[in-house]
From TrEMBL:
The keyword Transport does not apply. One of its GO terms (biological process) is protein O-linked glycosylation. InterPro entries: Glyco_trans_31. Its EC number is 2.4.1.-. It comes from Phlebotomus kandelakii. GO terms for molecular function: hexosyltransferase activity. It comes from the Eukaryota. GO terms for cellular component: Golgi membrane. The keyword Membrane applies. It is a single-pass type II membrane protein. This is Hexosyltransferase. It is found in: Golgi apparatus membrane. Keywords: Glycosyltransferase, Golgi apparatus, Membrane, Signal-anchor, Transferase, Transmembrane, Transmembrane helix.
Length: 390
């Protein structure tokens, strides 16, 4: 019994639930690109004036508390918006590259009073950026859960529910449905789209600052995530200059398919026959420009489905259209030891809803000062951390 099992593991022969050898992997068999497959859509989605950033949170149907936590914390775009950026980093004033506000002025709220950016003595005024946060769900076989989702949507108007069964092995379908919904509803009125999971904390002001062409200041507690390429917080050459063909997150390089059938990342050879994946971004959170979203959606409809959504979309599909995912150390999927690290990062994963609340309370408490790198810090210490992706 042991020897065949060992061979199956080594040869990646064992199938995975829902995607047997004979199951169709034609994306169009599930996505139906020419049909409206949404069961629920947002009813408060005003896109008339354009949106700079749309964050789509992929959430399991039953995760009501996780969604409510996000609404009350980092997903509250009327509170946790760009004016919070200079407030969070007020003791770093002048030590980071500012955003190119002029370039993106059409995406700022003109009808909202400006907020002081550097405390009581500030001379710079910052307005909120137009952005939206919505949740993407699949179907649930539980009628009571479905009834609660309908009620939740009636109250908040921020849910997209698509017609596929929500499960881990269907996460690729969920992400392609995300691309489909944006493509069919608002791609021409949105500048950037972020995909993330509902167990992620997103430092929205930091993300906005990066997309606006600025650089987030480096904290002592974020040093371990940086390499020398992106350590210089005031150099324009490290900022995002061209907002097109952007696909950015935490980059995995030269990863190999996992042959252990007990792993949730197990990859059968009939679904992926290669020995190494194309470089891809962690699916916990990544951001793209909408030209990239359209490219990925179109090519995904012509590419055999692969059950690991981050590998499929940001690796396989991106590679097919000549896109190179961009690494940012500010996207992380490892738990930090000190909450001060949250001040200088974009994503933190995995976190429980209560941990997300704690992170939000800490980040928005501007009376807490988090230290910069020590004045004697030697940049040579990070030389060995440079990403080896080419």
């Amino acid at each position: 019994v042991y020897i065949p099992l060992f061979r199956n593991i080594q040869n990646r022969i064992v199938s995975i639930p829902g995607w047997s050898y004979n199951t169709s992997r034609d994306t169009t068999d599930y996505v139906f690109p020419h049909l409206n497959t949404s069961l629920i859509e947002p009813n408060t989605f005003d896109m008339e004036n354009g949106v700079f950033l749309l964050i789509v949170v992929c959430s399991a149907a039953q995760n009501f508390y996780a969604r409510q936590t996000i609404r009350e914390t980092w997903g509250n775009s009327s509170e946790f918006n760009y004016p919070y950026f200079p407030r969070m980093h007020r003791n770093f004033h002048g030590k980071y590259l500012r955003a190119n506000i002029t370039r993106w002025r059409d995406f700022f709220h003109e009808d909202v009073p400006s907020q002081s950016s550097h405390g009581d003595n500030a001379t710079e005024e910052v307005q909120p950026v137009r952005m939206k946060v919505i949740f993407l769900l699949g179907q649930t076989p539980n009628n009571e859960t479905q009834s609660q989702i309908v009620s939740e949507s009636d109250v908040y108007g921020d849910i997209v529910q698509e017609s596929f069964l929500d499960s881990y092995n269907n996460l690729t379908l969920k992400s392609v449905m995300l691309l489909k919904w944006v493509s069919n509803n608002c791609v021409d009125r949105v500048r950037f789209v972020m995909k993330c999971d509902d167990d992620v904390f997103v430092n929205v002001p930091n993300l906005l600052h990066i997309l606006l062409g600025g650089i987030v200041p480096v904290y002592n507690d974020t040093l371990s995530f940086y390499d020398l390429t992106n350590l210089m917080a005031t150099r324009k050459r490290t900022a995002m200059v061209e907002p097109r063909r952007l696909l950015m997150g935490f980059l995995f390089c030269r990863a190999k398919p996992i042959a252990d059938v007990t792993s949730k990342w197990y990859s059968p050879i009939y679904m992926y026959s290669g020995t190494t994946y194309p470089n891809y971004l962690s699916g916990t959170g990544y951001v793209m420009s909408t030209d990239v979203l359209s490219m990925l959606y179109n090519v995904s409809l012509k590419t055999p489905l692969f059950h690991l959504e981050d590998v499929f979309l940001t690796g396989i599909c991106a590679h097919r259209v000549g896109l190179k995912p961009r690494h940012s150390p500010l996207f992380t999927y490892t738990v930090v030891k000190n909450l001060c690290a949250m001040r200088g990062m974009i994503t933190q994963h995995p976190l429980s809803p209560d941990d997300i609340r704690r992170a939000y309370d800490f980040v928005t408490n501007t009376t807490i000062r988090c230290p910069p790198p020590d004045v004697h810090f030697n940049t040579k210490k990070v030389l060995g951390r440079s990403k080896f992706c080419k």
